[in-house]
Amino acid sequence: IIKKEIGSGDSIDDRPVMVEVLELVEEGRFDAVVVSYFDRLGRGSGKDQDRVVESFLIGDTLIIELFPFNVYNMEDEASEEQVAFKQFLARRDLKNINKRLTVGKNSALRMGRWVFGTKPYGYVYHRKDKKLIPDKETSVVLKSIFEMYLTDEMSTVDIAWELNKSKIPSPTGSLWGHKTVNEILKNEVYTGVIVY
Question: Which of 46, 121, 117 is nearest to 87 (CA)?
């Protein structure tokens, strides 16, 4: 059985495929589990690492690591020590990766770059300099939302009603709702601040 997990998480509970594999291991469904690199099993917290070892002990299942090739039997003391050391290194590696990502994001933010996924309504992401620039069409709508709120003193419900009456698509392409309008009005990006 091949199990693939595209994403990753800091905790086993954030990795649904890993949780499923451990449950199958505990049921004794496999003689061995083959992994390309051991750190795919052992990057979680100490509690998560103990959970991995415990699952393989319960299921009397071997761990076969391909690169470099190793076979670990959790009932063998030498294997247990190797696994504990590899888990420690994997956790340290994950912390270093997260630290580098955070430093990189902070550096990019100081340069005014957009480092988040979804761009705010009214902007487009300029790939070359990695910054937000106003979108010609939706920035006009954005400006009118702020004018209706500040100048005309309209409620978010009335603004949504007005936008829907004018057949202006919302950020999701559906009808406007007062919550969407409220989120736009509260978003600090529109004041020139990037919050991280």
Answer: 46
